[in-house]
Amino acid sequence: MTFSWYGALLGLGVGLGLLLTIFRLPPMRRPSLDSRLGPYVRDAVGPSAYDISDRTFTPFPTLERLLRPYFRTGARALERMLGSGSVVRRRLQQAGSDMTVEEFRVEQLIWGAMGFAGALAFSLLLLVARGTNPVPLLILCVCAFVIGVLLRDRRLVEQVKKREARMLAEFPTVADMLALSVAAGEGPVAALERVAKVSKGELAREFQYALAQARTGVSLIQALESVGDRTNISILARFVDGIAIAVERGTPLADVLRAQAADVREAGKRQLIEAGGRKEIGMMVPIVFLVLPVTVLFAFFPGAIGLQMVSP
């Protein structure tokens, strides 16, 4: 690194410090309307409408609480840039998470900051050791920030897929338990309560939430339909629709539940057969590119050595 780059970095640091100082002066940080009205209406609308909850996202809770206003500002800026808050809210519901969209944006911001910090440390090492051009390194830092933000979104998608897989694995057993409870003489609500208490898992949590909605005044049919709306599993949506139709029209519910459980088992068998077919094709790759060349080599190598020994 030449002396000019040292001066540029020093000037950049001093300029950023002065800029932060100017923006934190009282005339430059006038309180917004929300911050002025928030303390007076906090009891009416709840603290989560104006502030991030007390949940911490890093191993440094004290430092995180000090930086919480900046996290809030960064989360709102990230929300304006990325948008799709409704999509994120639906994915959080599908993942069974109680996080808000703002808390998720804060986590995305932290992941991006971690990527940016790692890339910045690597760039400083390259600048000190080799004097590399800083422009590509700056682009690397920005790309690391973007990758960190996208990785957090990717992790949320993976959480949704894993939860849906667990719900599909629990579904036949829960359907059989519901059918047995209804066949024993219990009503739909009592059967759902028994299954929600006895069983454990993601599907039982969804039924508990639906029962909680039904106790607050929502009809059981709407509460069951909301279970299908919160998930992205077509089989579960058909299952709750069948229960809702049976409750609404008075058809035998036990037969409907048994038929739904049989359909779920058949769908699971089809998924296993499809997965086995994909795995069979994937197993051909090491056989064709690794095992077969080694077999051919072992077959022809002794003959080639013998021909070399016989030839004059």
Automatic annotation (TrEMBL):
Localization of this protein: Cell membrane
Q: Transmembrane: is it a keyword of this entry?
A: yes
Query: Where are the membrane-spanning stretches?
Result: 6-26, 109-129, 135-153, 287-310
**Which is one Pfam family of this protein?**
T2SSF
Q: Which InterPro entries match?
A: T2SS_GspF_dom (IPR018076)
Membrane topology classification? Multi-pass membrane protein
Report keywords, A-Z: Cell membrane, Membrane, Transmembrane, Transmembrane helix
Please tell me one Gene Ontology term that the record gives under cellular component: plasma membrane
Q: Where is the signal peptide?
A: none
Where does the record place the Type II secretion system protein GspF domain? 176-298
Q: What is this protein called?
A: Tight adherence protein C
